[in-house]
Predict the 3D structure of the following.
Amino acid sequence: MLLCCCLVLVALVPTTLSVNPGVEARLTGKGLEYGRQVGMVIVQQKLKSIKIPDISGEEKLDHHLGKVKYTLSGIQILNVGLPQSAVNLVQGTGVRLSISNAFISMHGNWRVKYRRVFRDSGSFDLSVNGLTVATTIGIMSDETGRPAVRSLNCGATVGGVNIKFHGGASWLYNLFRKFIEKSLRNALQKQICRLVDEAVADLNPRLKTLNVLAKVDQYAEIEYSMVSPPVVSKSSIDLGLKGEFYNIGKHQEPPFSPAPFSLPLQTSNMLYIGLSAFTANSAAFVYNTAGALSMYITDDMIPQSSPLRLNTKTFGNFIPQIAKRFPGLMMKLLVKTVKTPVITFTPDNVTVQTTTTVTAYAIQPNATLSPLFVLNLDSSVSAKMTVSEMQLAGRVTLNKINLSLVTSYVGDFQVGILSGIFKVVVNFVVIPRVNVELAKGYPLPTIGKMKLVNPQLKVLKDYMLIGTDVQFTN
């Protein structure tokens, strides 16, 4: 009902020790209002399922008139109206839902027996006005660490009950009208809170869809469990998610921890999600640990339009001894990270610093690889991040590279003369392949069929901020 449509990321009680979160989220008053609108539709449908059992009774009118026996049967809900409702945050607890001036219209059949010999029957229309319902939706966690909710203290009162009978003798049913109205009021009041409690409980299967552990690809998954209880204030709900990448099947902690950060006070969107540099760096740690940040580069990967080819002739123009010792051979490069890349967030900029080794080989006619040299390649790239569907994707461009010689198997040479070649290699081979992977994106935290509406992403110091509205579909 309400929370499934609105609270989105809210509802996890911590299942880990309290640490700084890698991801923070804030639900604003605008988000609660959206939840109220969608939630009222669900509550209305639930109240339409009210089942009023047949009501039978015997009432003594007075010592002159005696007793009248009555039965109401086949009672059906025709309409439920919820013209006024509100949601409010209950500090430290959850959400308070209140409904006022609601009305319900019903139709059914009546039958009476009076003084043994007189029987009559007909139909009736019943309208209930001034119905009020209020409940607090408590937030907790189930045994799997996923969200769970329950109604804590529902209360319902029925204002006026007006019944209009059709058929039969009006003098007769007017005798027992007040007893019928009282019985129906009691029956409704017992039913309403039970149905509201059921509606809240019905959220739990949906809330179990929260991607607490979301698979990214063959190497990585990301954990979105809570690291501390939700902080419910008078205007918003703040929560901290772990937001950490792990190797699939092996949850190894990186040699760094998330630093604290706070979301800015903004209210124009329903939901704000802050993704810290820790989350990005934990991804770099995972992929580096998995050995995924290495690749072989061959000449067929260089654009045909490039005059620079990956062979000993091209490299011999810069390092003559290569052409002399290995004439007419194709070459292969092994690019491999030396240490985990470092990702930093500064206002309007994401920078990735990488240190890799480049080992150059000559490919002998029998496919044997003869090492030529090993270089250190320090590079800096800038990343542009985008949000698409429920994925955060990226694209990088090269800022600069610096080369230094580690080992040479062909004698000394000036490394700087190779910078042009390796800029071509990085720009036309390495970066396009990285961008293909980044374009696949990684999953943001989500519940059910949740959709981000007009998300805006801004890079701030040490974290990225996504401001977005939210929409749920069935």
